[in-house]
Amino acid sequence: MKAFIFDLNGTMIHDMDFHTRAWRHLFNHDLGGSFTHEEVKPQMYGKNQEVLVRVFGPDRFTAAEMDRLSLEKERRYQQEYLPSLALLPGLAEFLEAAHQKGIPMAIGSAAIPFNINFVLDNLHIRHYFRAIVSADDVTLSKPHPETFLKAAAQLGVAPADCLVFEDVPKGAEAALNAGMPAVVLTTTHDAEEFAQLPNVRHFAPDFTDAFMRGLV
Q1: Close Cβ partners of 129 (under 8 Å, ≥ 6 residues apart)
Q2: Strand partners, 183
Q3: Contact yes or no for 73/15 (Cβ under 8 A)
Q4: Is the pLDDT score of 41 beyond 90?
Q5: Is it true that the peptide bond before 143 is cis, omega within 30 degrees of 0?
Q6: How many CB atoms lie within 10 A of CB 191?
Q7: What mean pLDDT comes out for the span 152-156?
Q8: Is the dihedral of CA 12, 16, 17, 22 positive or negative?
Q9: For residue 122, which of 13, 5, 215, 30 has the smallest C-alpha distance?
Q10: Mapping DSSP to helix (H, G, I), strand (E, B) and coil, where does residue 2 land?
Q11: CA 202 to CA 181: how far, in whole Å?
Q12: Residue 52 CB neighbours (<10 A)
């Protein structure tokens, strides 16, 4: 492949439980809900505003309220996750090897810039990425292909020549819709949950996997 596009949460860092806990706290303590962890986990995809609409309906919040709640959730997530913030095993070496070979790389994430910057700057890895596409840069979230197509365009690489790294079925589906193969990190979902997606080339727990090493 000529380029790599990475989802962020759950793909580069193992943080999805922290997101789920932060959302659950917001839903239950701030918004009067009574959601279990198992009820919140399946909602962990797309933009924050979309999560709020899926859970509470389209008429509960104004746009300004959703923006405020989104930022509050992310502040809580960052405060709790920062002591554990780390790349998945093998990813630091993978990024450096790809960088040394001149393979262009991008981030294509439904996260807001506030969270992407939190990861890139605390882990000092911003210099590896020629393009960053966040929730603020797209109109339609995954599984729509807009995120990955914009990343490919910014890298100047044809979609079919991009390999996507994802951790959730909706993300791998977005890669399929963009005409891109995908590698799935099994940090949050089992391989069986991707059975309907013919573009998934490989499943791996992290980047120490032999298949991953063979890519660079």
Answers
A1: 105, 106, 107, 120
A2: 165, 202
A3: no
A4: no
A5: yes
A6: 12
A7: 98
A8: positive
A9: 13
A10: coil
A11: 10
A12: 23
